[in-house]
Amino acid sequence: QVQLVESGGGLVQAGGSLRLSCAASGRTFGRYAMGWFRQAPGKEREFVAAITWSGVIRNYADSVKGRFTISRDNAKNTMYLQMNSLKPEDTAAYYCAAVTKGLGSRPHSTPDEYDAWGQGTQVTVSS
Fold first, then answer.
1. DSSP E strand stretches across the chain
2. 3-class secondary-structure state, position 44
3. Looking at residue 110, what DSSP letter applies?
4. Model confidence pLDDT, tens digit, residues 75-124
């Protein structure tokens, strides 16, 4: 089973930036479709961004489009989420996730499609 570990969260002022990382164990990371989700207190987990195994296809939630960028480095077994122009409503625990079955040739936007999850990293944006 792949292990996913997020890092890079923290406290930032509105308008600031953070870069989250998701490090994966194992030798088949390069085959996985990957995604970022977030969950604020009292709310359901919501889709943020997704990327195919090659990095060619990337999808974003409307709420982050133009501000967040998902990317991956398969040689480093790592996925990233660059978050710019952060808003207080971006405050949440951020989770990375992987689809480990098959070749991840399309992005996935619903949590049920993912079968491996990290523990999450907290992002807090102050106004």
1. 4-7, 10-13, 18-24, 33-39, 46-51, 58-60, 68-73, 78-83, 92-99, 116-117, 121-126
2. coil
3. S
4. 999 999 999 999 999 999 999 999 999 888 899 999 999 999 999 999 99
